[in-house]
Structures are given as structure tokens and as C-alpha cells.
Design a protein that fits this description.
Helix content is about 45%, strand content about 10%. The chain is built from 8 helices and 5 strands.
């Protein structure tokens, strides 16, 4: 049997992250943060609909992984070249996170930020990384955060996440993973 251990981002506690990358509040009004790696305009349009429904400011962190012309137009604020500290602080203080990124999900969970996640590509695509997203959502009891269609964002934003349960699951997975690694590397 193969043991699945936590991604290194999960092996650190929120307190560890706070020590390594200090918490500073970005100077924006309450906001939705978009961190998309894929090139799907429908995901951006869904974020705009969410902004229109909530009245929150819309901030986008542009990815170097893909380019979508809409990235320059859909958000109230478009951030290029975010440092790791900027990136994490934007997640830490977001009122809502929209992403298609595994790490966008993980860092939202660690920081107890409500989020929705899209698949970047079809699960039939041989380059799909959707299994990483599926695994983390299932592991932490957040399957309902997968936005299978753009309209799902408007439904998910009103559903709260049980972060007490999520935090316990993260802690258990971290402990199991660290114990396995200690024994495997001993």
C-alpha cells in the first residue's frame, strides 16, 4: 500500500506560516481574491457576478502560468509579481477566494478563508491536476466547495465552512504525515 502524505504547505501550521511570512493586512476594502492558473474566462465572469452580488472589491493575482486577456479587465485590482508574503497576506485577509489552484485551496483552508475552486482543465485531460484538488477537498470535508459550473459561486458564497472540523482534519493529516515521514526516513 502507498501512503499519501500531506503536501509540504500542509505540514506547516498556521502559526508556522505566520512566523515565516509575517501577517500584514493589505490596504484594500473588503475583497474577493481570484487566483486562477488556468485560462478560462467563464471562471473570471463568475467572479465578476459574485462581486456584483456581494458588492465586494475584486482583486486578481495574475499567474505567469497562463495568460488570459480578460485578466487585465475583469478585476478592480490586478496584481502582477506578488511576492510569497503578498500572496499569502492577500489570502489571509480575503473575504472570499476564487481559485483553480491546489495551493489556493490549501492556503485558504489553513487560514480559514471561505473559497470556491474550479477545475483548471477537464478531468479527461492527461495533464489534469484535478485529483490533487479532489483529494484535499475530500480529506478535509469540503467537497461542496468544488464549483462545477460558474453559477455555483453564487450558491457557495452563502454556505459556511465548518472550519473547526477542517482544522481538526488538517491537524490529524499533518500528524499522520509527519509520523510516517519520521519513521520512513529514520
Amino acid at each position: 500500500p502507498v501512503t499519501v502524505v500531506a503536501d509540504p504547505t500542509i505540514l506547516l501550521t498556521r502559526e508556522d506560516w505566520n512566523r515565516f511570512l509575517p501577517v500584514t493586512k493589505p490596504e484594500y476594502p473588503p475583497y474577493i481574491l481570484c487566483y486562477y492558473l488556468g485560462n478560462n474566462p467563464a471562471h473570471r465572469h463568475a467572479a465578476v457576478a459574485l462581486r456584483n452580488a456581494t458588492g465586494l472589491h475584486l482583486i486578481s493575482i495574475r499567474s505567469v502560468e497562463s495568460y488570459a486577456k480578460i485578466d487585465l479587465e475583469y478585476a478592480d485590482e490586478c496584481i502582477e509579481g506578488a511576492t510569497p508574503e503578498n500572496f499569502l497576506n492577500l489570502i489571509r485577509h480575503a473575504d472570499y477566494v476564487c481559485t483553480d489552484s491546489f495551493h489556493g485551496v490549501v492556503l485558504s483552508l489553513i487560514n480559514n478563508r471561505p473559497f470556491s475552486v474550479f477545475y483548471r482543465t477537464s478531468s479527461n485531460n492527461p495533464n489534469s491536476r484535478n485529483t490533487r484538488i479532489d483529494h484535499v477537498l475530500a480529506k478535509f470535508g469540503c467537497n461542496d466547495r468544488l464549483a462545477e459550473k460558474p453559477d455555483d459561486l453564487l450558491e457557495q458564497v452563502v454556505i459556511s465552512i465548518d472550519f473547526l472540523s477542517v482544522n481538526r482534519r488538517i491537524e490529524n493529516f499533518r500528524d499522520e504525515s509527519l509520523n510516517f515521514l519520521r519513521h520512513a526516513l529514520a
